[in-house]
Amino acid sequence: MARTKAFDIEEALEKAMNAFWSRGYASTSVHDLVEAMQIQRGSLYGTFGDKQTLFRLAYERYDARRQKGMQSARSPVDAICAWFRKLVEEGCAENGARGCFIVNTALELEMHDEAMRGSVAKSLSSIEAFFFDNIRAGQQDGSIDEAVDARKTAQSMLSSVIGLRVLSRSRPERALLQNIADSAVAPIL
């Protein structure tokens, strides 16, 4: 008969996500995870497998949350502007120094970890698609000029997101982050 877990798996995964997000994969030891998750080492391995599997689960949790946050009933321009406002607010928040789990993972990736490279590429592509789809929708409803190159602008916005997230770790200055956000959305206003 299997023993019931003495801990909440979702809560433990949330704590693991926060540990990895704050420290990165390489700098987060199994000991750090056990302490953060408030579980025994055997429970970590028994429930989540190994550190790499736990990292992937934590990454997927973060990415699912990000995707849900991008869903919007707003107009295309408002959806994009709101996303950049949120990035500035998060970047200036007390815990903004952690940056973005996706961007942090992209910067830390080992070249041989093909699966994580694929996950990060998919996440970044979905952010670009969010911008592209909203730009095209805005062009269709007349709120964004047809002359705007939707693909190039979406790619530029993605680059701005990455820059904002990296800078929020070392220079969480509101004016700096706001200037970058303003420049990113300028082509669609």
From TrEMBL:
Residues 6-66 form the HTH tetR-type domain. It comes from the Bacteria. It comes from Denitrobaculum tricleocarpae. This is TetR/AcrR family transcriptional regulator. Keywords: DNA-binding, Transcription, Transcription regulation. Residues 29-48 bind DNA. Pfam families: TetR_C_13 (PF16925), TetR_N (PF00440). GO terms for molecular function: DNA binding.
